[in-house]
Write a structure and sequence with these properties.
By secondary structure, the chain is α/β, with parallel strands linked by helices. It folds into 2 domains: about 10-170 and about 245-320, 3-Layer(aba) Sandwich (Rossmann fold); about 170-245, no CATH class. Helix content is about 35%, strand content about 15%. It is built from 10 helices and 8 strands. The protein has helices at about 10-20, 75-85, 115-125, 140-150, 170-180, 180-205, 210-215, 220-230, 240-245, 310-320; strands at about 30-40, 45-50, 60-65, 90-95, 130-135, 160-165, 260, 285. The chain has an 8-stranded mixed beta sheet, with helices on both faces. Strand 3 (about 60-65), helix 2 (about 75-85) and strand 4 (about 90-95) form a beta-alpha-beta unit. It is globular, with a radius of gyration of 19 Å.
Length: about 325
């Protein structure tokens, strides 16, 4: 991916914050979605948003969102715009608790939730007759790549190609980075402002699920994950969670076309933690541009738009899957 940030948008933090808040996510009309609620095998539910209108025989693009993301996130809207232009079907499955309705079970979602990714992709494979490609953004990207590594050659039964965008493939390095300095003051506070209330809703559903005082005292994602995310999802503690959930050690096991995009100035993902060619094997393509921030990649004149990344990643996925897409006016 040959990406250079506009001259009016310097630095990794600006390239992260501005696209999320002010740049245009779409170049056409705002996407319209139809929501389906799927019951999970453990008696819970997830919500899946489908771009409308959609034809079942088209190539299906599936987007797994990032931490506290949804189909309304700027990158999800931008991928919807790309899918519509290319005549693709498009679906955004929401991780549990991220669709606007709190889920029912004594769990939420996490960065290594590859079993959930696998169940979702199997459901989509069962209802969609055409080719399927998948992209995961940030947390969703790590979970998707973790799934692809876990599945090996059998992943081809579900999807033709996968991509991750700005995924913290080394969760320990990413978790430490977001807990320091400016990141702690801005990004950590932003995430905890929504994550803590949702955790308290979960506690109201399931009294005694975790230590409420420890959760209220959490001041960074390390402490939050240690109290809430790790124990609720079967991990010993946060260090065990971050180690076992990281996709980076599993990238060499991937046996389908896979793309990992990471900007080297991403405030959340240290460049020193990014995988190199010798760590990923022949099926994985690495794009590591100098600029872009965290899921930013703005383009055009001020105030800019965020189509450069979906255009590049979506086109790669179609080519890797042997599809071209049909450009619509």
């Amino acid at each position: 991916m040959n990406y250079t940030a506009p001259a009016w948008l310097p630095g990794g933090n600006l390239q992260t914050i501005w696209p999320a808040l002010y740049a245009r996510p779409v170049l056409g009309l705002r996407p319209q979605f139809r929501r389906e609620r799927w019951r999970t095998p453990d008696g819970d539910f997830i919500d899946v948003d489908w771009l409308q209108p959609s034809e079942p025989g088209e190539t299906l693009l599936v987007l797994f969102h990032g931490l506290e993301g949804s189909s309304q996130s700027h990158y999800a809207q931008a991928f919807a715009d790309f899918a519509r232009e290319r005549g693709m079907a498009y679906a955004v499955p929401h991780f549990r608790g991220c669709s606007g309705d709190i889920n029912l079970g004594p769990r939420a979602y996490h960065s290594g939730d590859f079993e959930e990714v696998g169940w979702i992709l199997a459901r989509l494979r069962a209802v969609h007759p055409g080719p399927i490609v998948a992209v995961g953004v940030s947390l969703g990207g790590n979970a998707l790549m973790r799934w692809a590594g876990e599945m090996g050659e059998s992943a081809t039964r579900m999807v033709s190609a996968v991509a991750s965008v700005c995924a913290p493939l080394d969760l320990t390095a990413g978790g430490q980075a977001i807990g320091r300095g400016f990141n702690r003051l801005v990004y950590t506070r932003m995430f905890l402002n929504t994550m803590k209330p949702k955790a308290l809703q979960k506690l109201a559903q399931h009294p005694g699920l975790f230590d409420v005082q420890a959760l209220r005292a959490a001041r960074d994602l390390y402490e939050f994950d240690n109290v809430f995310t790790a124990p609720l999802h079967g991990f010993k503690d946060v260090d065990d969670y971050w180690l076992r959930a990281s996709a980076k050690p599993h990238l060499a096991r991937i046996r389908i076309p896979a793309l990992a995009v990471n900007a080297k100035n991403d405030p959340f993902v240290p460049a020193s933690s990014l995988p190199c060619e010798s760590e990923v094997g022949s099926h994985v393509t690495l794009w590591q541009p100098k600029h872009g921030g965290h899921v930013g990649f703005a383009g055009g004149r001020w105030p800019g738009h965020v189509r450069p990344m979906p255009d590049a990643v979506g086109t790669w996925l179609l080519q890797a899957a042997g599809q071209t897409g049909v450009a619509h006016g």
